[in-house]
Amino acid sequence: MLSNCQNVLVALDGSEQAEKAFQEAIAICRTSKAKLFILSVINNAELSTSAYAFAKVFDQEKTKVETEMLKKIYDANKQGVEDVAVIVEVGDPKRFIIHAATEVYPIDLIVIGATGKGTLTRAVVGTTTDYVVNHSKCSVLVVK
Questions:
Q1: Angle separating helix axes 51-78 and 16-32, nearest 10 degrees
Q2: Which of 7, 41, 91, 132 pairs with 54 at a CA distance of 20 to 30 A?
Q3: Nearest Cα to 129, choosing from 117, 26, 86, 3?
Q4: What is the spatial distance between Cα 137 and Cα 27, in angstroms, rounded to a whole number?
Q5: From the CB of residue 88, how many other CB atoms can be counted at a distance below 10 Å?
Q6: How far apart (Å, rounded) are the C-alpha atoms in residues 104 and 87?
Q7: pTM of the full predicted structure?
Q8: pLDDT tens-digit series, residues 81-128
Q9: Separation CA 142–CA 120 (nearest Å)
Q10: What is the DSSP code string of 20-66?
Protein backbone atom coordinates (compact mmCIF):
# COMPACT_ATOMS: atom_id res chain seq x y z
CA MET A 1 0.00 0.00 0.00
CA LEU A 2 2.64 2.56 0.98
CA SER A 3 4.62 1.85 -2.18
CA ASN A 4 1.59 2.86 -4.29
CA CYS A 5 1.36 6.35 -2.81
CA GLN A 6 1.68 9.24 -5.23
CA ASN A 7 1.02 12.15 -2.85
CA VAL A 8 2.05 12.08 0.79
CA LEU A 9 1.18 14.84 3.25
CA VAL A 10 3.18 15.22 6.45
CA ALA A 11 1.91 17.56 9.16
CA LEU A 12 4.58 19.40 11.14
CA ASP A 13 4.22 21.35 14.37
CA GLY A 14 7.81 21.55 15.59
CA SER A 15 7.49 18.59 17.95
CA GLU A 16 9.86 15.62 18.18
CA GLN A 17 7.10 13.29 16.98
CA ALA A 18 6.45 15.52 13.96
CA GLU A 19 10.14 15.29 13.05
CA LYS A 20 9.91 11.50 13.21
CA ALA A 21 6.82 11.68 10.98
CA PHE A 22 8.78 13.88 8.54
CA GLN A 23 11.59 11.33 8.32
CA GLU A 24 9.06 8.51 7.78
CA ALA A 25 7.32 10.51 5.04
CA ILE A 26 10.66 11.09 3.31
CA ALA A 27 11.40 7.36 3.39
CA ILE A 28 7.97 6.58 1.89
CA CYS A 29 8.33 9.21 -0.83
CA ARG A 30 11.83 8.08 -1.69
CA THR A 31 10.69 4.46 -2.06
CA SER A 32 7.49 5.20 -3.96
CA LYS A 33 8.72 8.28 -5.88
CA ALA A 34 5.76 10.18 -4.41
CA LYS A 35 5.33 13.92 -4.13
CA LEU A 36 5.82 15.18 -0.57
CA PHE A 37 3.47 17.85 0.78
CA ILE A 38 4.83 19.46 3.95
CA LEU A 39 2.06 21.15 5.92
CA SER A 40 2.45 23.53 8.83
CA VAL A 41 -0.60 25.21 10.33
CA ILE A 42 -0.11 28.21 12.58
CA ASN A 43 -2.71 27.71 15.29
CA ASN A 44 -4.37 31.11 15.59
CA ALA A 45 -6.07 30.06 18.85
CA GLU A 46 -2.66 29.85 20.54
CA LEU A 47 -1.34 33.25 19.47
CA SER A 48 -3.07 36.07 21.36
CA THR A 49 -6.34 37.83 22.03
CA SER A 50 -5.01 41.36 21.44
CA ALA A 51 -5.19 42.47 17.79
CA TYR A 52 -1.83 44.27 18.02
CA ALA A 53 -0.13 41.40 19.82
CA PHE A 54 -1.70 38.91 17.42
CA ALA A 55 -0.28 40.73 14.38
CA LYS A 56 3.19 40.96 15.92
CA VAL A 57 3.28 37.36 17.15
CA PHE A 58 1.75 36.11 13.90
CA ASP A 59 4.42 37.83 11.79
CA GLN A 60 7.16 36.34 13.97
CA GLU A 61 5.60 32.87 13.85
CA LYS A 62 5.04 33.04 10.08
CA THR A 63 8.67 34.01 9.48
CA LYS A 64 9.85 31.19 11.75
CA VAL A 65 7.63 28.63 10.01
CA GLU A 66 8.62 29.76 6.51
CA THR A 67 12.32 29.49 7.45
CA GLU A 68 11.75 26.02 8.87
CA MET A 69 9.90 24.95 5.72
CA LEU A 70 12.86 26.00 3.56
CA LYS A 71 15.06 23.79 5.74
CA LYS A 72 12.61 20.91 5.33
CA ILE A 73 12.65 21.25 1.54
CA TYR A 74 16.44 21.16 1.64
CA ASP A 75 16.41 18.09 3.94
CA ALA A 76 13.93 16.24 1.71
CA ASN A 77 15.92 17.07 -1.44
CA LYS A 78 19.16 16.01 0.23
CA GLN A 79 17.57 12.65 1.10
CA GLY A 80 16.41 12.02 -2.46
CA VAL A 81 12.89 13.48 -2.53
CA GLU A 82 12.81 16.10 -5.25
CA ASP A 83 9.09 16.75 -5.69
CA VAL A 84 8.20 18.77 -2.58
CA ALA A 85 5.41 21.26 -1.93
CA VAL A 86 5.08 23.40 1.18
CA ILE A 87 1.75 24.49 2.62
CA VAL A 88 1.64 27.09 5.41
CA GLU A 89 -1.77 28.06 6.70
CA VAL A 90 -3.36 29.76 9.68
CA GLY A 91 -6.23 28.20 11.60
CA ASP A 92 -7.20 25.04 13.40
CA PRO A 93 -4.53 22.42 12.54
CA LYS A 94 -6.76 19.35 12.73
CA ARG A 95 -9.42 20.82 10.48
CA PHE A 96 -6.95 22.18 7.96
CA ILE A 97 -5.09 18.86 7.66
CA ILE A 98 -8.36 17.18 6.72
CA HIS A 99 -9.35 20.05 4.41
CA ALA A 100 -5.99 19.96 2.62
CA ALA A 101 -5.99 16.18 2.27
CA THR A 102 -9.58 15.78 1.09
CA GLU A 103 -10.55 18.99 -0.69
CA VAL A 104 -7.45 20.80 -1.90
CA TYR A 105 -4.72 18.27 -2.73
CA PRO A 106 -4.88 14.69 -4.07
CA ILE A 107 -3.38 13.12 -0.94
CA ASP A 108 -3.08 9.32 -0.72
CA LEU A 109 -1.46 9.18 2.71
CA ILE A 110 -1.22 11.49 5.72
CA VAL A 111 1.80 10.98 7.97
CA ILE A 112 1.44 12.54 11.41
CA GLY A 113 3.05 12.27 14.84
CA ALA A 114 1.13 10.49 17.58
CA THR A 115 1.25 13.61 19.73
CA GLY A 116 2.13 17.21 19.08
CA LYS A 117 3.80 19.87 21.12
CA GLY A 118 0.84 20.38 23.47
CA THR A 119 1.80 19.33 27.01
CA LEU A 120 -1.62 18.00 27.99
CA THR A 121 -1.79 15.44 25.20
CA ARG A 122 1.69 13.92 25.23
CA ALA A 123 0.71 10.84 27.22
CA VAL A 124 -1.95 9.70 24.75
CA VAL A 125 -2.69 10.14 21.08
CA GLY A 126 -3.06 13.88 20.54
CA THR A 127 -6.38 15.50 19.80
CA THR A 128 -5.22 16.61 16.34
CA THR A 129 -4.01 13.11 15.48
CA ASP A 130 -7.20 11.55 16.81
CA TYR A 131 -9.30 13.93 14.74
CA VAL A 132 -7.27 13.27 11.58
CA VAL A 133 -7.46 9.48 12.00
CA ASN A 134 -11.22 9.61 12.50
CA HIS A 135 -12.06 12.10 9.73
CA SER A 136 -9.59 11.34 6.95
CA LYS A 137 -10.79 9.80 3.70
CA CYS A 138 -7.28 8.52 2.93
CA SER A 139 -4.89 6.33 4.90
CA VAL A 140 -3.16 7.83 7.93
CA LEU A 141 0.19 6.68 9.27
CA VAL A 142 0.67 7.63 12.93
CA VAL A 143 4.32 7.78 13.93
CA LYS A 144 5.51 7.40 17.53
A1: 40
A2: 132
A3: 117
A4: 22
A5: 15
A6: 11
A7: 0.87
A8: 999 999 998 889 999 999 999 899 999 999 999 976 554 444 445 689
A9: 18
A10: HHHHHHHHHHHHHTPEEEEEEEEEGGGT-SSHHHHHHHHHHHHHHHH
